[in-house]
Amino acid sequence: MARPADLELASVTKRYGDTTAVDSINLKIKAGTYCCLLGPSGCGKSSTLRMIAGHESVSDGDIVLGPEVVNTLPPAKRGTAMMFQSYALFPHLSARDNVAFPLRMKGMNKVDRSIRATEALKMVDMERYQARLPSQLSGGQQQRVALARALVTDPQILLLDEPLSALDPFLKVRVRAELKRFQRELGISFIHVTHSQEEAMALADLVIIMNNGRIEQAGAPRDIFNSPATEFVARFIGGHNIMPDEGRKISIRSDRLQISSGGHGTPAVVRDVEYQGIAVHVSLATETGVEMMAIVPERIFYSHPFEAGEAVKVHWDPADIHELAA
Ligand code: ADP
Question: Topology with regard to the membrane (predicted)?
């Protein structure tokens, strides 16, 4: 087994001609971390991952893996392995031969390759399917073969580029839990690129939110959700109301708003009511035109339901006000 290693990006920049895809980012990922790079399309996530993998050159700055600057090392010499979005399995090779492929590239003999490949397939519970071709496997099974192929070289860090995007919603949740379990068992860092905040929240010890080639915020999911640093972060992770308040900009979680038909509070009109099972989502517009969303537990909402068009008062505990950076 490879030793888990710390990873550091020091002022790493990626330029493609005139485009700065990654703009001097600094980042430390301790060994054994599940890290998600999260952000909208085009924010520089894949470029960052590809630079770590060595599939893309670094324009400026250093990538440090363990004690070593790896900027100029080829991908196979870095101690990283990459799992791609499309799995990219060879259609004419069995599951075992797919997994053995990176070992063949390293010049390992056939017998050892076969043993190691079978071990890796066992790790992802796919040993009994090792003779099958990719077309004879389900999407989730192909995904596990791809994972075994990435892990067979004993990487210190596993890099995953949108690994769940090809799976249906049900499988996504199941495979997500499996990825987390594998990461915990292996004890190495996984760096997982996603544009889904739900996926990042569910998986990550460390979420890196990127915007326009820069890091907007890095932290544990709960810390980010409870204290979004900027308006961008608050909007991107969702579940927050953002409004101007006495010359500053504030956010308040949607589940912290209360609605009543009278009394004190900010006057508003109910725009829409959406039943979601566990909670009811109530869209509101204040007299000054601020759009808000209150998420009300089902039982509380139906003890005093509101309808679209109704005039209400919205209130919140001042302790729930969170100030955003300008
Ligand atoms: P993300 O993974 O967050 O969607 P990318 O890292 O793929 O973002 O892209 C970041 C920016 O760099 C985008 O503006 C994209 O168009 C640009 N870009 C990515 N790859 C290339 C490339 N090979 N050549 C030129 N521009 C690129």
Answer: Peripheral membrane protein
